[in-house]
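Subgroup meeting minutes
Present: P.N., E.W., G.H.
Scribe: E.W.

1. P.N. recapped why we're keeping a running log of single-chain structure predictions: easier to compare across weeks, and new members can see raw inputs and outputs side by side.
2. G.H. added today's entry (265 aa).
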Amino acid sequence: MKRILLLLFISFYVQAQKVDTVLVPSASMNKSIKNVVILPDSYDKESEFPVLYLLHGYSGNHSSWIKTKPELPQLASLYKMIIVCPDGQNSWYWDSPENPSMRYETYVSKELVGYMDQTYKTKKSPSGRAVTGLSMGGHGGLWLGIRNQNVFGACGSMSGGVDIRPFPNNWEMKKSLSELADKPENWENHTVINQLHKIQPGKLSIMIDCGTGDFFYAVNKALHEKLLYMNIPHDYTERPGVHNGDYWKVAIEYQMLYFSRFFKQ
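Output recorded in log:
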């Protein structure tokens, strides 16, 4: 019995060593931001690894994903990738046109990527970087991927708020964009569905995933149909499910498989 407990302790300790919280300075916001970094168990044995930037939803933080999916270290090891979960506050991962203290597009796509490339054994090209997330982070995954194709080669969304315009009074978005009635151009310019014309042919792999019972289902379906109309290749999945952790626990496994295949191309 003691031997079994010792082995369990050693197993837990080794696994725990793969997960760290690091503070990364943001010059654009003049503060340091917490990020969970998950390393695969082969990190010391190989020269470089692709990186998945995994974004939390509204009211979450840098630790939300590891709580939702405690198996992330095993998945990182299985697919031989680094996972980074930044704290995006409730920013929607924009550089706010109204609030200069909210510059989370700059933080994730430039400052955090730069830090990871300087500090860890990363593959330093778009072919080695992907970004995705859930809910607000699903919007962020597509927003950052589409607008930074020189940084990310793949992007995704799980239950994402991919069109914010039907929700003008929700989730503190007007703190970054102002009231819809006052500045409708901010809302038009900061919704993912209006960014599709920026996607360069053959430059971005895209995966979208949403449950049919999700309150974001209609906007995800509309995004899928617009991508089809514009002849933009993408992977789209809908299946029974709602906006909750049970759905995301499964969705992240599909997304990581998709990105693993992208990284191996």
